[in-house]
## 1
Amino acid sequence: MATPGEMRTLVKKLQAATTDSERIDILETLKKDAVVSESLLRETKAGLAVGKLRQHANPTVVKLSKELVGIWKAAVDRAKAGRSDSKASESAKGPVRKNSTTPAPQTPITPTIKTSSGPARTAKTDGVKFNGATPDKTRDKCIELMYDALVLDSTASSDVVAEHAKAVEAAVLAANDGSSYSAGYKTRIRQLMVNLKDKANPWLRESVVSGKLAADRLATMSTEDMASPEMKAEKARIQGENLFNSLAAHEQEAETDAFTCGRCKQSKCRYRQAQTRSADEPMTTFVTCTNCGHRWKFS
């Protein structure tokens, strides 16, 4: 089993990796060598670091991260199943005598976990019913829809997920004049269901179930706001590239050695200037390193 120190080192390298080849090498190492436990994953936050890569742009990185998460989940499940079997065996032997030196087995306090190979979690598979949760059947059904979206790949207990599903539905209701018959209420429930069930955005589900994202905040978020940090960063990168490619594309870039590239530290650059803001603001300078292709801008 990997020590916490070794695992932390690999996790830090994975988070600091700047190329896909580095990420793939680290993921392969983790898949091949790291024998994990639930406590090790929690302590090193390895599961969170690898889980974020399931929505990476590189398909190989995505495939490896998904495989690794599945392997780790299965290992945790097997360990918990072993503890449950041990507990059942001890119970069958009868109570421990008062003078015995053998300590009584402790019941682990853990959330309900579904394995990656089992059926997808839903209110039906979890045995959770919301009939009568509110005086309104429409609201009860919407709470169930929120539950199904939030529990998709969650490891939280059914009670925790149900609590958050009810809170989200109540927040949407409050944001739509308290009427479940309004078009706004039904439209918003559908929008949230689609975004929460997006397999490429586990960050949103995890944030709601963990309580990091409040229900009343989620109820009013735009689709752009609900995107994961990685998706937002990728969008910003694409927008930046488009800006470089479109602004003053017809103008000739001038060569200069007045700027130093922050990546390769060379001073062979091309630059152009454009008025991207109001007329009383300074012009924006767009610089491209001719050595490594790195681009940046400043005003």
## 2
Amino acid sequence: MTRSDEQGRKTIYNVLPNWIQKEKWLPVGRLDQDTRGMLLMVEDAKLIEILGAPGKLEKTYEVWVRGHVNEPHLAAIREGIRSPVGILHCKAIKVFGFVGPKTRLHVVLTEGKNRHIRRMFGALNDPKYGTPLKVLDLKRIQIGPIQLDVHSGHWRFLSEQETHMLLQSAG
């Protein structure tokens, strides 16, 4: 997310105190407009380079998909899905269950492309209905060893131990 949006949409800075913006805290990576969840903010540009480098930190997402994700879908995702932005794959994927016509999963990425998870599932069809699978809800719940533990619109500082674990995970 950016400090301001050309279309007037809210950014991460709308939920943070003004002093954070004045002290030039910056996000590590980004969440697109339709994704919610965890975002790290740092004051040190070198940390952004370390933590934001592709492949450095695993990012785990809770995903709700319209349609039933089955083993052939999982195999295709593990192999890699061709898309206009390149081959889309994930480090890990796990189905947690079904609620009516929806599937709940966790997807782990080490490198994310534009709308990565949405494109990945959108390229697959629901065998029962013959329609593309559609991501209904996408929430980042973990970055490296740090799990999301605050409600939407809230924030907190990382402890020294969490910062140390994060830097260790990033190498």
## 3
Amino acid sequence: MRHKLRSALTVIGIGIAVLAFTLIRTVIGAWYAGIDAASADRLITRHAVSFVFSLPISYAAKIRQVPGVANLSHAIWFQGIYKDAREFKNFFPRMAIDTEHYFEVYPEFIIKKDQLEAFRKERNACIIGIKTARQHNFKIGDVIPITGDIYAGKWEFVIRGIYTGRDRLTDETQMFFDWQYLNERMKENDNTLRADRIGWYVVKVGDISKSAAISQQIDNIFKNSAAETKTETEKAFNQSFISMYSAIITAMNFISFVIVGIILLVLGNTMAMTARERTTEYAILKTLGFTSKHLLGMVSGESLTISLIGGALGILVAFPIIRGFQVAFPNMFPILPDPTITILIGGLAAVSVGIIASIFPVLRVMRMRIVDGLRHID
């Protein structure tokens, strides 16, 4: 408390740095949350060349015949433009799905039975996630107008259901509608290249231990065909999306550790100044019989106290900011990592910095001779 302003500015600086560090680690964790949410009993069968290429709907019958396949569904990315495409809040995943089996394969999407039945009876009906419904104030019966981009034209979807997630890792921002509706529109427009095509198959296996064998059998069926397939676990499929942004994630990881370095420099500079100003006092303490262990406790204890106060401040501020971002942009952060991990990482960073920043001041004090300390003039 000798230099209150300097101590306060140091605490605030550490708090801001820990806040930035925590936010970056949360974003990185959010990227990987989809991988953690993947189910072990689901396989994804897509085009062998790239995810952007479609597959014939006729493949479904052959995949169902593969031993070990318990259920099968399919979907295709639709997207389109809702209102103003320049506003990120208007982006939410929109997909055409197999209405009969999709929610059986994805039991984590919880929807009322009467809503699901109404959805299946109406061609242009859709089901949306609760987060998207709250963000746009959607309710049952509302019409969502979409301007096609991948699939040209004007589209209108009537909300017949709103699903919720079974657990924290379930994405509640998506919109689903009947693939048959999309397929019929393609045929009406004589778009034969896109008719009877789907984006990927979702294969539910009965025995997880046989997933690799089932994947191989499916791909062997369509080997040397016009549209060869690649079947992989849902986790590996989600990982392939993350790999497209590996450069960004690597950069963010690097920046997060640069921030830790900045915290270290800020606190290290403060502790070095403190130790230098108190050189004479430390010499007097040694004269009075205080050992090196006592001085170690004083210097490192002060460093840890400042670091922990700043770290706690940064973490406390981080949570409402993260929650605010999630509420304002649920599609950017559909799934946030476990906050316990965020607290531990932020706290560990603060403790590590507090310890490391005190090393050089402590060594200086412990090696200092009493005579040299008493002669020191600040």
